[in-house]
Amino acid sequence: MTLGDTILQVENLQTHIDTKMGLVKAVDGVSFSLRRGETLGIVGESGSGKSMTALSILRLVPRPAARIVGGRVLLNGEDLLSYDAERMRRVRGRAISMVLQDPQTSLNPVYSIGGQITEAIANQQRKLPRLELLKRAVAALKTVHVAAPEQRVRDYPHQLSGGMKQRVVAAIANSCEPQILIADEPTTALDATIQAQYLRLLKEIQQESGLSIIFITHDFGIVANMCDHVAVMYGGRVVEYGPVRAIFNSPAHPYTRALLSSVPAVDRTVDRLYSIPGQPPMLWDLPRGCRFAPRCEWADSHCHQEYPPTVPSLDAGQAAHTASCWKLEDIGLENVRC
Amino acid sequence: MRRFLAIRIAQSLLAMLAISVIAFGMTHLSGSPVDSMLPEDAGPEEAAQLTRELGLDRPIHVQYFKFLGRVMTGNMGDSIMSPGASALGVVMDRMPATLLLGGFAIIVSTIIAIPIGVLTAVYRDTAFDAAGKIIALLGQAAPPFWLGIVLIWVFGVTLDWFPTSGRGGFSHFVLPAIAMGWFQVAALMRITRSSMLEVLDSEYIKLARVKGVPEWRIIWVHALRNAAIAPLTYFGVIAGIILTGSVVIETVFVWPGAGQLAVEAIRARDFPVVQAVVLTFAAVFILANLLVDTLYAYVDPRIRYR
Prior knowledge:
The complex is a heterodimer. By secondary structure, chain A is of the alpha/beta class.
């Protein structure tokens, strides 16, 4: 698919959280851009700041502990961080929508499915008569392939299966035809077959409406299937960014390489799956230099002292492939050890 | 839904039956009323005769079933301390005053407690939340009888803002309702707060925000209905506390209700009246809980469809 103009531009986004341990820089200068119809994967371990990045875009970071302290989030050129609360509210659901991780708990148990879908529609288009709203709710359920939607609208969440609930969440997210859909690990709680169906469904919705998707995951399999570009996050920063092919074929950053090495491959038998030595950094006590340096086999004293700038990767042909590492030349482009 | 209600009604009737056993048994544990009914110079023959007349010489289970049969038809015997009046009639004369005061206390405490509970959750760890904590602490620490006396002393006697006792216009309700209701406000507020905190932290509230639902709607519609179960349960408990509390509060404020009547009847060993009070209170309590359960089903579809 050809990609359109830039629709979302995130520049140097910073979100800090006050915790008992101290100040956590959960999102520490994240930048990326998203084009119309594009799917961007954000990959990283738990606590790498990927979910907080998503919530920061929607300005829904858990307050009062967390706050966005800097950067810009440009939606069609307008900075969302400068919007007042009411204007921002109207962006949510309509321009940018989101699918949450756990379908079991993301639907309100005391309201009917139909009620929850119509609410999303009514929020953005007031003055629609009730019957019309209900019709649209049924239509929204149809787009996510829920069987017998006319009956389903009257059901309550506890009457649906997990996969069905996640479809309903997708229907809610898609009901106002958003330009951007943020999917925060939407398939983690689903089993493998349902997961595949669900991913197909998202692709289908995307092809019909041309929406852009930010896909947050730690599953490289999903990334390979779904995404056009990938941003790899570590310790609140994007350490590598590039087209999905480039990330898989010639990963530049040692962390990306390590991540890919720890993915089990179906066509190979290994005695022991590779795992990255050490622990992810404590977010309230980040290293001064490169955050991955303590776990990196290439790191030297320079790496420990100064955070590396974002530079183009060695595979010069891939224009948009960048990484933040001092050692790109030393590492070279040789294949990932698997 | 119908099945749920049928089961709950059957359970309520069973509870009523159990209470009739207890009410019957308790009064028989407190000694024979014959001694207090007879004049001081009465001899053992007269005592034996009265015992026979009252049926107190029959086996205990026979007495119980006779009692149950009478209760079913609304006949709980005649009052001993006010001759000529039926026990149930005496109680029914006093019940409206009790229900009025109790109902007033419950409604006012709810109107105060639920919004404060919700707002202390929304604005947790602020000065407002701290003030709520203090109100709750005071309410839960002060026993109603003591609070009643203090209120009479400060607002009735010293400041002379409200009447100190008796039943009359609206001003007569204020002090006893505060004495009765403060504890409920405190408890209800804390329950609502913790319940709301849990709900506000949930994924579906996050999803509502993602949908662009206005904040007021998220709090008062999405969150409150989910958080309502715990405070709703507590209403059943409140019904009990208000009824038993009426015994104390009505005595302190000389409120002419069934609670005060219970105290008078116990003193006079007027056990038909005591039984009538106990059974009436029990019936009100069970009805209140039945109502609470019905509301559950209305609030939460998961209960409705079970």
